[in-house]
Write a structure and sequence with these properties.
The chain is an alpha+beta fold. 39% of the residues lie in helices and 14% in strands. The chain folds into three domains: 39 residues; 41 residues, no CATH class; 33 residues, no CATH class. A hairpin with a 6-residue loop joins strand 1 and strand 2. Helix 2 packs across helix 3.
Length: 138
């Protein structure tokens, strides 16, 4: 790449052009654009081609804690895995998964929701395997 092409690529990327749009505009191969920009963004003397700017602030769907959203990547809905898990356990009806059903555990008899399992926990699964093998715990 010539210096003029490098400058043009950086200029277009700073204007939020996609990699494919830059390749079409400059006539350079898409792979060349990607590799050049990945090399350039790691250097200290060159500014990041796409500035990382906070776009909006939303709240966690479970606890209401503020979430900082950036313009890069996937939109966050939860502040952590614990909140995500609690929310979906409380709102199973909103899940897009097919037909979870209530079933009783074959070992302890506790009722639980499952898509395909026979045991409510790994502990019950382990007990069932040890009973099947004839091992007793005591």
């Amino acid at each position: 790449m010539t210096q003029a092409e490098k400058a043009a690529v950086l200029s277009l990327r700073q204007q939020q052009y996609s990699f494919s749009a830059i390749a079409e505009t400059t006539g350079l191969p898409l792979g060349t654009i990607k590799s050049y920009l990945s090399r350039v963004s790691g250097k200290k003397d060159t500014p990041d081609p796409v500035p990382r700017v906070t776009v909006s602030q939303t709240r966690c769907r479970q606890c209401g804690a503020p979430l900082d959203q950036t313009g890069n990547g996937k939109h966050r809905s939860f502040c952590n895995d614990r909140c995500r898990s609690l929310y979906w356990n409380e709102h199973r009806d909103l899940s897009k998964r097919a037909s979870a059903h209530k079933q009783s555990c074959e070992v302890c008899g506790r009722m639980f929701f499952t898509y395909h399992g026979r045991y409510c926990s790994r502990a019950c699964y382990g007990l069932a395997r040890s009973r099947k093998a004839g091992v007793t715990r005591g």
